[in-house]
Amino acid sequence: MCGIIGYVGDEPALPILRTGLENLEYRGYDSVGVSLRGDEGIRLFKQAGRIKDLVLPDDETTVGIGHTRWSTHGEPTDANAHPHTDCGGDVAVVHNGIIENYDTLREELERDGHTFTSETDTEVVPHLVEERLAAGDDLPTAVTRVLDRLEGTFALGVVAVDFDGIVAARQDSPLVVGHGETGSFIASDVTAFLEHSREVTYVEDGDVAVLTRTGVEITNDGEVVDRPRDHVEWEAEAAEKSGYEHYMLKEIHEQPTALRQTLSGRIDELAGKVDLDLELPKEYLNSLDEVTFVACGTSYHAGMYAARLVETLADVRASAEIASEYEFDGGRDPWRTLVIPVTQSGETADTLSALRRAKRAGARSLAVTNTLGSTVTREADDTVFIRAGPEIGVAATKTFVSQVATLALLTVSLARARGVMSTTRSIEFLSNVRKLPGAVQQVLDAEQAIREAAEEHADDEAFFFIGRKLGYPVALEGALKLKEIAYVHAEGFAAGELKHGPLALVTPESSVLAVLSEGANPKATLNNVKEVESRGAPVLGCTSIEDAEKFLDVSFEVPELGVLSPLIANVCFQLFAYHVAKRKGRSIDKPRNLAKSVTVE
Ligand code: F6R
Fold first, then answer.
1. Domain check: are 461 and 416 in the same one?
2. Does 238 map to a domain?
3. How do strand 152-160 and strand 91-99 relate by DSSP bridges?
4. Are residues 256 and 147 in the same domain?
5. Three-state DSSP class for 459?
6. Nearest alpha-carbon partner for 105 in 40, 48, 150
7. Do 272 and 364 sit in the same domain of this protein?
8. Are 515 and 489 in contact (CB under 8 A)?
């Protein structure tokens, strides 16, 4: 996820771009840049780091674009920072999203003599525009034609020497146009220009917006279209959270988008194949005896989920280990053990230290992280990015679902490399993976019922989360989320373990939250539900099976996605935790005693 902004008007563009980028930093902040278009042609100022570190001149130029980046293709370096330009530096582009077919386009452009200076997917766009301009198109026509060549998701802002304005386009990434008194704006969201304009037009998929000194024209498929203007009532702080009261809630609701980004360009569903751009050779994956996930907190729960997927689908021994407890021992063969540190931040000291212990023992490693350029990416042998976008709330939400989705893809890669998953089986599994964004959206649409249940039970003495199989890590994650943001006693148990001790804690004042979906052995868990009910505990269940609601005080429906259903159930638990914490008036985005990145052991 990145943020883009652009301005055309009577005022100097730089101060507007600078403030806009500061307001967009919640979308990404690992590198930043602006381009000005004026009498001196296109000028570029960009570097790794934050907008506050970017040295900009005093300048009166009145057309410009800007970008704040959260890397997905190419490390956060000066060269990879946006804007990107064509060979002659006559076109500059900012982009939010992922161009899925960039490698094919890049090969073609390089064959035609274009020289690239970054590792980004974005850089193909200015080169493609350059070709169209050379063929005689004006900038709006050139951009419109280039869109036909792009696959993936994008919001683009383009400036060129020969055009006194900005051309913007959108496909599946947010883009809004602002109509101000002194000029027009584009941005990834209204926060960027709210202090200059509250009159906005939300650009739709396939639209091309042309911003000039006389106003804005929007076309779709070459035809001029009339998009409505809205008046934004929000204040800037609310707008930054897109109207949500907390980043955590915003990030919970961003999960369908985060999942789309995670999966984008990685699945060939017809062939049942996955491409994660792994450097580890297929022969090595084929020879593995064991896969070990090392991680902490929520990432550990993602690792537990993945370990079960790997064992059942890729037919190789797999386990998840708490990073701070991990030792490379137990007679493992380092040459045949793949160690997978799973870490959103890529900086968790316990996880890095576990990775170093594994490396010292001679094992190979594959990092799974959200953060390009983080320490784990430098130390592991190979890396897969989860592409969830920046997470501001301390409680991990969207990164959990993106971690598990990435690890589900990795499971298919492993299974196919090892020849243990048929094409039919893989197509079936990947078709469920593809349905994840829609299934998560279904749960989000039912938020009201979850909120009501959370408010009703907010003052319970304790909360017990139970689940089996893939429901077990989800039970642990549900309890972790509730304790960290609501500060209440919450515990997760393997449902079958209740009767071996924890049942003594269950009373009519303690709610039990159960995972009763496919992939979590729901029939067996229903027996445990009956055990707790007979002790008078209220039971709330996330279920994808028929008639389960008969045994539940409250039931939340979870779409049926096989072994991925428990992952969807987790979204109910996130919303439940959020609304309990809100009811209790907790500091949701910055819970007490916790930090987003834990860099001490
Ligand atoms: C829980 C949470 C923490 C992190 C843990 C690992 O909501 O955020 O439990 O999951 O500190 O962090 P990363 O994934 O950055 O290694």
1. no
2. no
3. antiparallel
4. no
5. coil
6. 150
7. yes
8. no
* Residue tagged active-site, from 2, 296, 542, 572: 2
Separation of CA 536 and ligand 1 centre (Å): 34
Do 372 and 267 belong to one domain?
A: yes
By 3-state DSSP, what share of the chain in percent is helix, strand and coil, each rounded to 5? 40, 25, 35
* Polymer length of the chain: 601
pLDDT tens digits, residue range 499-546?
A: 999 999 999 999 999 999 999 999 999 999 999 999 999 999 999 888
Domain shared by 20 and 92, yes or no: yes
In angstroms, the CA 159 to CA 83 distance is 10
Which domain does 27 fall in, by range? Answer: 3-232
pTM: 0.80
pLDDT at site 495? 97
Which residues in the chain come in under a pLDDT of 50? none
The CATH code of the domain that includes 175 is 3.60.20.10
CATH of the domain at 540: 3.40.50.10490
For position 82, what pLDDT does the model report? Answer: 96
Query: Are both 186 and 318 inside the same structural domain?
Result: no
Question: Quick one: pLDDT at residue 71?
Answer: 81
Provide the pLDDT for residue 24: 87
Return the best residue to mutate from 299, 589, 599 for the ligand 1 pocket (most ligand atoms within 8 A of CB).
299
Atom 9 (ligand 1) nearest CA: 297
Q: Looking at residue 238, what is its pLDDT?
A: 63
Residues 322 and 370 in one domain: yes
* End residue of a domain, out of 380, 412, 434: 434
pLDDT at 428: 97
List, in sequence order, the alpha helices (H) in 282-348.
Answer: 282-286, 297-313
One-letter amino acid identity for 402? S
Same domain, 395 and 332: yes
Ligand 1 centre from 577 Cα, in Å? 16
d(CA 9, CA 256): 36
Rounded Cα gap, residues 105 and 126, in angstroms: 12
- Answer yes or no: 2 catalytic: yes
Does residue 190 contact residue 142 with C-beta atoms inside 8 Å? no
